[in-house]
Amino acid sequence: MPEAVAGNGGYMIAAYIVTAVILIGYSVLLARRARKSTSRQEKHV
Amino acid sequence: MTLAQRGRWITIGALMLLAGIYVRALRFTPVELTQGPAQKIFYLHVPAAWSAMLSMGLVGLASILFLIMKDARLDRFAAASAEVGTVFCCVMLTTGPLWARPIWGTWWTWDARLTLTLMLFFLFIGYQVLRGAVTDPRLRANYAAVVGICGLILLPFIHLSVYLFRTLHPMPIVLKPSAPSLPPEMLVTLLLSFGVFTLLYVGFVMQRYALGEGESDA
Fold first, then answer.
1. b/e per residue, B84-116, with b = 16+ CB within 10 A?
2. Helix (H/G/I), strand (E/B), else coil: B36
3. What integer pLDDT is reported at residue A2 of this predicted model?
4. pLDDT block averages, 10 residues each, chain B of length 218
5. Residues 6+ positions from A5 with CB-CB distance below 8 Å
6. A residues 14-33 near B, CB within 8 Å?
7. B47: domain range?
């Protein structure tokens, strides 16, 4: 009889979600900081 | 096209490729029989660890070069790489315990590899706290370079800790003297993920470097 695979898919899904949140979150943060920096420079000029 | 715009496009492309890695890892890569689906965390955890170590390695190299050449661009690059490295370190330190809980039965253990990796995270944080605390740009760059070099020195200890100490952490399966010990489908997924995480690192650093350039011009 084939061996049963461990039922720990919840941890896997959690890890994939956390990674996506961190990486997409940082991308958004960088874009927002760039926009703020550009507007600050325009005000300065 | 400016550096920031190029970085943004590279990041967008890398995030789309990351979605492809998700599909490949979750749908088309076989489930490992003894560990079950939790083993697939490895396709994110290991490349994140690689990116975090690449970040600190380049922070250290840029810091050494900065102390020799006194070029502000090297300091700016080190600052950008350190911030991006912190992000990858966060991915590594959250996905690691999510794998350890079902496999080891505990979220965390104070073994050599895990403890040294946590030290790397604290070095990244310390590097940024230091940069925020020192107002004189010349002193800030010099002090930060010393911390960056400490981080570079830490890296070989992290990689070799599984050989030097008795540890629960698995041995390297790709970055080792002999051939990688993974079935081809799993190895391809892992190598693709390495590529995508490296591309993400490049995109993030380009954007963060451009941001630093703008701040120093203002």
1. bbbbbbbbbbbbbbbbbbbbeeeeeeebbbbeb
2. strand
3. 55
4. 92 97 95 91 96 97 96 96 97 96 93 94 96 94 97 94 83 71 89 97 97 69
5. B31, B33, B36, B37
6. 14-16, 18-20, 22-24, 26-27, 30-31, 33
7. 3-29+38-217
Tens digits of per-residue pLDDT, B55-114?
999 999 999 999 999 999 999 999 999 999 999 999 999 999 999 999 999 999 998 999
pTM: 0.92
Specify the CATH number for the domain of residue B198: 1.20.120
Structure tokens at B84: 């991006």
Cβ–Cβ of A16/B22 closer than 8 Å?
A: yes
| B40 contacts in chain A (CB < 8 Å) | 12
